[in-house]
Amino acid sequence: MPAPAIGPHIVAVETALTAAGVVVGQGGAPSPIPASGQYAAVYFDPGQSLPESLADRRTLFALGFQVTAVGPTRDACLWVTQKVRDALHAPLSVPGRAAWRAEELGGPPVQRDDDVSPPVFYLPVQYRLMSTS
């Protein structure tokens, strides 16, 4: 049995966000940045293949990821954060696997980035997606 693949999990997350109307950039801002200035940058870790039992059959897969909501105002940033939360609330569809709901692990408060012009507000939130075959 091959190790669980990361690719379908990444596609499931990005598909759910896009279907909810969120503009997504993988690993940074999308290009071009939408005129509204509202988007989500998604950062994925390499994931972990985990044993389901002491028999060491590695059928479980855990993918950690961070979604950083960005907006020109605090309220716009929180709107993107809520759209992301709504999109990830239902179990995601990962072909050939059964996936749990993405677990929201939290993040810091909304912050303002004054190092860019014009300044933007951003909020990184960590998630974990788990699946099994």
Task: Describe this entry's structure for a reader.
With 133 residues, the chain is of the alpha+beta class. Helix content is 20%, strand content 35%. It has two helices and eight strands. Strands 1, 2, 3, 4, 5, 6, 7 and 8 form an eight-stranded mixed beta sheet that branches. Strand 7 and strand 8 (120-132) form a beta hairpin. The longest helix has 14 residues, at 74-87. The mean pLDDT is 94.
Task: Record keyword descriptors for this entry.
133 residues, 2 helices
Task: Compose a concise summary of this entry.
With 133 residues, the protein is of the alpha+beta class. It has helices spanning 7-19, 74-87, and strands at 24-26, 39-44, 48-50, 60-71, 98-99, 103-106, 111-113, 120-132. It is elongated and about 55 Å long.
Sequence-ordered SSE layout with sheet pairings:
Layout: H1 7-19, E1 24-26, E2 39-44, E3 48-50, E4 60-71, H2 74-87, E5 98-99, E6 103-106, E7 111-113, E8 120-132
Parallel strand pairs: 1-2
Antiparallel strand pairs: 2-4, 3-4, 4-8, 5-8, 6-8, 7-8
Structural class: alpha+beta
Report mean pLDDT, rounded to a whole number. Answer: 94
Order of helices and strands: HEEEEHEEEE
> Residue ranges: pLDDT <50 for 5 or more in a row?
none
Total helix count?
Answer: 2
Question: Roughly what percent helix?
Answer: 10-25%
Number of strands: 8
What percentage of amino acids are in beta strands?
Answer: 25-35%
Shape: elongated
Q: Nearest-angstrom radius of gyration?
A: 16 Å
